[in-house]
């Protein structure tokens, strides 16, 4: 049965939304095409009508996840750095990677990914650095960029490590240490 262009686009969007979440939860290799398509309510047979390969989907889903992160940040009522740090390094963010930061959830996969995934990931990093840089307290642009890079690296690393350890106390310590050593005051 042939579907309309509008339905095909709706299907494609549903695949991307589900893949963005499932890849953040399970990684690129942690879920197969059958399960990805099933999560979108579709069959595997339609996959190649939307994407050239799983790598193509991974790149587009990574872009979608990073886009959603930017949208979530822009919709926050308190967009101060202190509020963002508290939310980013929270227990809830640690525990819900499927809805959380695409950088922390997908960094390992992106590092092993193909050129398209790495390109999209790099663009996401640059975008977030630019947004952070605009809010850094240093006097000149180069110093603000350095602060933004340090902040992003510290926060993503702390979140990633806090997710990787089984010890709840160590998980909390990692995130608290990151908060205390950021290049801004988060009190």
UniProtKB/TrEMBL annotation:
What Pfam families does the record tag this protein with? TetR_N (PF00440)
Q: Which PROSITE patterns match?
A: HTH_TETR_2
Kindly state which keywords UniProt assigns to this record, in alphabetical order: DNA-binding, Transcription, Transcription regulation
InterPro entries of this UniProt entry? Homeodomain-like_sf (IPR009057), HTH_TetR (IPR001647), Tet_transcr_reg_TetR-rel_C_sf (IPR036271)
Q: Where DNA binds (residue ranges)?
A: 32-51
Say if the entry is tagged with keyword Transcription regulation: yes
Residues passing through the membrane, by range = none
Superkingdom, taxonomy of origin: Bacteria
Q: Where is the HTH tetR-type domain?
A: 9-69
Gene3D superfamilies with a match to the protein in the record: Homeodomain-like, Tetracycline Repressor, domain 2
Write down the PANTHER family for this protein, in alphabetical order. TRANSCRIPTIONAL REGULATORY PROTEIN
* Name this protein carries in UniProt: TetR/AcrR family transcriptional regulator
């Amino acid at each position: 049965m042939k579907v309309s262009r509008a339905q095909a686009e709706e299907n494609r969007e549903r695949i991307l939304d589900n893949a963005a979440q499932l890849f953040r939860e399970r990684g690129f290799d942690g879920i197969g095409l059958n399960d990805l398509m099933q999560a979108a309510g579709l069959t595997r047979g339609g996959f190649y009508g939307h994407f050239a390969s799983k790598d193509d989907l991974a790149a587009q889903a990574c872009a979608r996840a990073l886009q959603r992160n930017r949208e979530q940040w822009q919709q926050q009522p308190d967009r101060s750095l202190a509020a963002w740090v508290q939310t980013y390094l929270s227990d809830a963010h640690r525990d819900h990677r499927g809805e959380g930061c695409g950088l922390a959830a997908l960094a390992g996969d992106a590092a092993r990914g193909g050129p398209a995934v790495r390109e999209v990931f790099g663009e996401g990093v640059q975008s977030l650095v630019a947004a952070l840089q605009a809010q850094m307290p240093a006097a000149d642009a180069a110093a603000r960029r350095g602060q933004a890079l340090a902040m992003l690296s510290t926060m993503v690393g702390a979140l990633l490590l806090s997710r990787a350890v089984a010890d709840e106390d160590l998980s909390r310590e990692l995130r608290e240490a990151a908060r205390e050593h950021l290049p801004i005051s988060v009190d």
